Amino acid sequence: MSAIPLRERLGPLVEREYRLLFAATTITTLGDAIAAIALAFAVLDLHGAGATDLGIVIATRQGANAAVLVLGGVLSDRLPRQRVLAAASLVQGGAQAATAGFVLTGRASIALLTGLQALYGAGQGFVLPAEIGLVPQTVSAERLQQANALRGLTRNLLWVIGPAVGGAIVVAGSPGLALLIDAATFAAAAALLARIVLVPRVALATSRFFGELREGWREFVSRTWLWAAVVLFGVGNVFFMFWNVLGPVVAKEDLDGAGAWATILVANGAGAVAGGVLAYRLRPERPMVAAVAWPMLYALQPASLAAGAPTWLVSGAAFVGGFAIAVHLTLWVTILQHEVPEHARSRVSSYDALGSFVLTPLGTAIAGPLAAGLGTANALWLAASVALATSGSILLIPSVWSIRRRQAATTLGA
Questions:
Q1: Which end of the chain is more exposed for a tag (fewer CB within 10 A), N or C?
Q2: How many CB atoms lie within 10 A of CB 75?
Q3: What is the mean pLDDT of each run of 10 residues along the chain (414 residues)?
Q4: Among 212, 196, 192, which Cα is nearest to 204's?
Q5: Nearest alpha carbon to residue 411 among 201, 130, 216
Q6: Cα distance between residue 355 and residue 121, in whole Å
Q7: Pairwise CA distance, residues 12 & 330, whole Å
Q8: What domains, with CATH codes, occur in the chain?
């Protein structure tokens, strides 16, 4: 039996520019996973601070992110994307370094942390459009799905490991130390991104900002499979948030409390890692159909909670849900990169992200009141039903079925 060639074993990592991008995004993902729990305790450790204050800080960061997404798409289609990412890393790193400084010196306040996390969120808003446009420039087209799967797999794995590391740092030292580590990862990422060298993109006639917005919007709405799926997934994501809000409530009241919920979340993360492994090799003949069908399995998560299932069964449903979402995300991003012209890819991805996630804060806000009015179990059954209905509706769109697997060319750069 012959040995598998090194290039085949390494997959997309054999290509230098992708390797640099992968290293940069991996480092910052680890930093963010470590810092997530640290930020929460940095806020909650302040005198008189509570859940409302933490909600304000996080909501402000999310709002700033959403506010600049479309701008990030325009600039990422106009400028070298690796430079946009490097600049965003420096903004995010600066915000985290300042946050760490105030926390470590005992001078932090809700107002300061809110302002700095708004700055962080603004930097973060440039990341997704730039990354989605940059990945196909750094890897040969036949390895594109592998590249997306590898990034997703690594991200999911780090979000299993990172919070545990962050928690240990918070317990042993200070939230500020974990935030400082996060800041350092952004500086390292910017240095790696600066080393990426790409084939120059085709120069396009420069138009005004709003003209570029309109051009990106035309590309977005010209594809029925895209805009319709984004609208329906956006509705589904409102109810997707019920899991995060009502899950801990069910765990506290009907299961074994925080320990049970931690077990369920670990299972969900493990499922996402396993899904990333499958997505690395999966080659469906109709990738859009697969990308829409897989998320239907997520309905098992809220349904298991609604049915009063024991912890082990909810954990199994969470594993399946994490697995399905990981496969969906890899296929979805790859389809977007294949089907949208290079010059508009970042703008279209920004409209995709905005439409998909702009309503998620609404889901967080209404989960509690709906559970109070309908009952927790009924609210969770509603969430499961919407997950099935939205994906099922997308499958009724003819153009979803017309997208087939591509035999892609191998040219890099654009």
A1: N
A2: 23
A3: 50 90 94 83 79 73 84 86 94 96 93 94 91 88 84 83 80 88 96 89 60 79 85 85 75 73 78 85 87 91 91 92 90 84 78 74 74 86 92 90 68 39
A4: 212
A5: 201
A6: 17
A7: 15
A8: 14-140+159-194 (1.20.1250.20), 207-404 (1.20.1250.20)
